[in-house]
Write a structure and sequence with these properties.
Length: about 100
């Protein structure tokens, strides 16, 4: 299944060092600036998609795309076995099951 969301993420493996994954072109190298925002394109489990972006690319996201939620990027955002908690404000929390969108993929 192709993702309906822009390819701004997907730097693997997740090691607790959130970096902006934004690419000017699909073949470009990712931005790799320290990420300041964690963006959720969708929070529906079937279509959940997330990206880590820096301030500069957050501006671009806000101009060009519609996202479901965002929160400041922190180490948990780039750790395996974490998921997007829908608490207000949202944040990434360790999960032991895959019942949260964005759980260990
Ligand atoms: Zn960036
Ligand atoms: Zn996060």
């Amino acid at each position: 299944m192709t993702s309906p969301f822009p390819d701004l993420g997907g730097i693997a493996p997740r090691v607790g060092d959130p970096r902006c994954g934004s690419k000017a072109f699909p073949t470009s190298r990712p931005c790799s600036e320290p990420a300041t925002w964690h963006v959720a394109w969708s929070l529906t489990p079937e279509t959940a998609g997330f990206s880590l972006v820096c301030d500069e690319h957050m501006d671009e996201v806000q101009e060009k795309y519609v996202y479901a939620d965002r929160h400041p990027a922190e180490i948990a955002c780039d750790m395996p076995s974490t998921g997007w908690s829908l608490a207000a404000p949202s944040r990434c929390v360790p999960v032991s099951s895959d019942d949260l969108p964005g759980g260990d993929r």
